[in-house]
Amino acid sequence: MLTPPKVFRDVVSQPEAVSALLGEISREGKDIHHAWLFTGPPGSGRSQLALAFAAALLCSEGGCGACNSCQMIQTRNHPDVQVLNTERVLISVDEVTEFIEKSIQMPAIGRFRIMVIEDADRMSERTSNLLLKSLEEPPKGTIWMICAPSEADLLPTIRSRVRRVQLKVPTVDAVAQLLVEKYGIAFDLAQSSAAQAQSHVGMARRLATNAGARERRTQALKAVLSITDIPSAMYVSETLAKLAESDGAQLTAEQDDAERKELLISLGVSEESKLNPSSRAAIRRLEEAQKKRATRSKRDGLDRVLIDLMGLYRDVLTIQLGTGGALINADLVQEINKLANESTQAQSIHNIEQIEKVRYRMDRNVKDNYLLDSLAVGFRRKAAR
Asked: Would the CA dihedral through 232, 238, 241, 247 be positive or negative?
């Protein structure tokens, strides 16, 4: 394998994917393919790898990580690298239309115009068909980089026009090492955070650096472990919803405040100023966009809770099967052992399957409270036979 340039140093445990991209870059005299699909589970680093590839293509040294071009891409300020990451539950037609219009512009300072779509699985079929037209007739010098959990999340016609780059789940040790080396996290905290995040790099970093996030996660797991009957299940369902909403609100609060301050400065007004109609309209548009982001943030928070619950029941099943495998939630080993002894393997498998079904239905906008109520009731402990 070729030695990876510095821009790839934070891509965790993806040697095959990095090697494939380096091989593409090294083919002298050959055109770079115009469309790429980066697939892999959440937290595997799809967007990070796409941006590292973009930096390597635009850097005169192949991705030194130190030049202005590389630095601008790392901070997402490069004029030739556009990133679409919606604040909504779904990527809208308007967002993709505007993004496509940007793709036909000539590069400003580099060789290519690079268009990165994060979470492309959030596109509807109608929205995907808009993108398909651009992939069929790509503007000269434009390279598309599409990120999604799996190929199945995209239309077959889109899949037929892209080069595929498959990412794997990073190891817990590799994620922990990144937290220690890049963010200065203490080893034990890095290791536990990486395990609890199930190797999701972004979530591991958040757990390692945010005590509130760690506490909310623990509260959610302990609440589920306390379910004994229908009344307690209904109480836990409400608790999970509140914890997810609180987690989402914490994530967006600082961003909302920074955006409002930046907008007021650009308008030349302060919070105490009397606003003219134009300023009021601008602030109203911002508030509407932030409300949409809050909706997605709550939904993402619920999904994180569900992923944590899947990890909990996988730990229970690990104990029941006697595999001796490492637990995701080693800090709750006593509670997990108790639940393992008081339930069956079939019940644990059933619970994991039900969580997967709830995640699927949430993606299709079934009401969250109904789904959580049903799920929590199903978690009632039944005596092992």
From this structure: negative
